[in-house]
Amino acid sequence: MIPGVHADFSNDNGWTFLVKAVLILVFLLVSVLIAIWFERKVVGRMQVRPGPNVHGPFGLLQSLADAMKLLLKEDMNVTAADRIVYLLAPMISVFCSLLVFAVVPFGPSVRLPWTDWSTPAQLTDFPVAVLYVLACASVGVYGIVLGGWSSGSTYPLLGSVRSTAQVISYELAMGLSLVSVFILSGSMSTSMIVEQQTTRWFFIPLLPAFVVYVISMIGETNRLPFDLPEAEGELVSGYMTEYSSMKFAWFFLAEYINMLNVSAVCATLFLGGWRAPWPLSAINDGMLNEGWWPILWFLAKVWILMFVFVWVRGTLLRLRYDQFMVFGWKVLIPVALGWLVLLAVLQYVRLGEGVGTGSLVTVLVVVGLVLVALITFWPEKRRPEEPATVAFDAHAHGYPVPPLPGQTLPPSPRAHRRPVTVDATVVSDDASAAPEEGTR
Questions:
Q1: Where is the sequence biased in composition, kind Low complexity (predicted)?
Q2: If pLDDT is split at 50, 70 and 90, which confidence band does 433 have?
Q3: Domain annotation covers residue 30
């Protein structure tokens, strides 16, 4: 195990933390505007259409125009809503989404221009920083749940219930994939995890956990093909149906900030954080890993993962809800749990008997490829044949009951008395009725 070091915040004071917090807030708000424009442009190119190209150069001001429209739009409240919870729900979602970047390292210590004062490019860090990230993501779903419940409408309630099941399912898989990083690094501090990826990025030895995390982060942020809580074709707009103006914009803002959050966490834990990719990291003894360069590498990794979000949205169709839950509980969680057990055993053997790091990486990659192959080519379980339908008496117990699966209602006694129209001529369906003269 490579010894790691925590970021040194000894030179920071209250004003330093305040300035960093404001810079992170500005960064997130500007990034959301860029992300909306970026998504429209990429999806437009994938669908052979221009995307935004009118407001500003290359359509860059389109997101700003949309934000101003939502800000100035008439604010409407639902009469049947629980007023306090209805207003509080979008605030919870936005507030929790803004907390995650507090522990994300943008880079190592940077020296301010024209001064001798240096500070880590990170707001704060502590030994359980990754658990703090998971806690913020878990509490953030309360905004969705309360927003759907307090609206006093059917479709928002269905969207909030779906969101609850979705977060429980995919956060379990995400948590199990992150435990693999804890085992290999021996720490839950984000700065120490980045420090221990000096020689190799963790996505190489932890490839199955990396794949599970990437899939889980798309499900965690309610993005296509996992946007079941806000499925427009089924639930109008899901938990946001009864929201308008800035309250709707807060939910919209929280969704895109959460995309940036999970992308930053993925870059930090699996892709080396702020470290330059090889072979750039080997130039002049790692000169590109010092100063302000690491912030550039970190942002590049985050936006590559943001492109993955957009790419998946423009490529895949929305899953059915049963397929979505089956995939989470019967595929992702078992794979993540099996990989975690295997990694724990291999790590114990490596630390106990001195197995080389290269051999461990080779074994982990091979086992990961075997797991992926088993999942891909596992024979599909055949569904049992449906039993033959059996007629039943709906009034057998003295009151009418609906048929169960496999049962059919008897034919209606009035069916033979219904008239049948043939060539605009009404003919009685009763066999005892004599046909009129001239009819066939």
A1: 421-434
A2: very low
A3: no
